[in-house]
Amino acid sequence: MSLPQQVTKAHATGNDFVVYLDRSGKFEPTPEEVRFLCDRHFGIGGDGLIRLTRPDFVSDLSDDQISDALAGGAKWFMDYRNADGSLAEMCGNGTRAITLFAQRVGVADSTEPFRLGTRAGVKILTPRGNMKPYGANVFQVEMGQWHIGEQDAYEVTIPGTEGAARGTFVDMGNPHVVAVIEDAFATLPRVEDLDLVTKPEVRPVIESDQNVEFVRIDDIDENTGVGEATMRVNERGCGETLSCGTGLCATGVVLRSKTGIDHWDITVRGGTLRVDVTERDVRLTGSATLVADVTLL
């Protein structure tokens, strides 16, 4: 087994992970081990696995990626795997969960920004303590540059569910298609009534598999410039999750393009998070929780 004996269960607004520290680089998991640990019946259960290790201990990284991480001040790297064992470029909620874990194991300062390497570049996480309405152990994550495609260029359907919606492609280091389902041309059910156990279909087909977000705008306060929205997500590699950090950011980008509003409080099944969008980047603010330490037998 290429896993340590001690691992930790963590979550960030319900997006849950098995996490562990690998100081020496000898605990790189196999896809089979990831699937076992993330299995909710035969393993610990999680939407993904995160190994916190040094950038040069991540075997799929190129020399340039390692150099970029170190040049960006990231001594530690988030080696993230989806629950199906596949590699993932980025996980916004995972950055918060692994940073809280890094503080607990003494490799991150609880009061200072933490530079974390990811396959989508270095992310900077700033501790914010307890913040209403976002919860405890809140971090603001600098998620980096976003790229948006043509608005409403994709048809989004759910097999077995009547209706369709139009979606917009957003690249947040990983691919997303965001459908605002109360648009005039959307005929899907309400966000709350969607069957997201079934994987949505996107046409035309995007070359790489993508996460798909379904969103409803709940309110816009013109005085404060803050909008409120509700989102659900089917995440590639694990199905519906209670929260998706990059999906929240992609949603904020699309809502901004449709409304001109830069700041959004977005509620997912795991809680409420803040998304702030500028021309250059996105910042995501939300909580993280360490649940339990687990000894593998």
UniProtKB/TrEMBL annotation:
One of its GO terms (biological process) is lysine biosynthetic process via diaminopimelate. One of its GO terms (molecular function) is diaminopimelate epimerase activity. Keywords: Amino-acid biosynthesis, Cytoplasm, Isomerase, Lysine biosynthesis. It comes from the Bacteria. The active site is at C91, C91 (proton donor), C244 (proton acceptor). It catalyses: (2S,6S)-2,6-diaminopimelate = meso-2,6-diaminopimelate. PROSITE patterns: DAP_EPIMERASE. One of its GO terms (cellular component) is cytosol. Substrate binds at N15, N82, G92, N93, N174, N211, E235, R236, G245, T246. It is found in: Cytoplasm. The record marks H176, E235 as: Could be important to modulate the pK values of the two catalytic cysteine residues. Pathway: Amino-acid biosynthesis; L-lysine biosynthesis via DAP pathway; DL-2,6-diaminopimelate from LL-2,6-diaminopimelate: step 1/1. SUPFAM superfamilies: Diaminopimelate epimerase-like. Its EC number is 5.1.1.7. Catalyzes the stereoinversion of LL-2,6-diaminopimelate (L,L-DAP) to meso-diaminopimelate (meso-DAP), a precursor of L-lysine and an essential component of the bacterial peptidoglycan. Homodimer. Belongs to the diaminopimelate epimerase family. NCBIfam families: DapF (TIGR00652). This is Diaminopimelate epimerase.
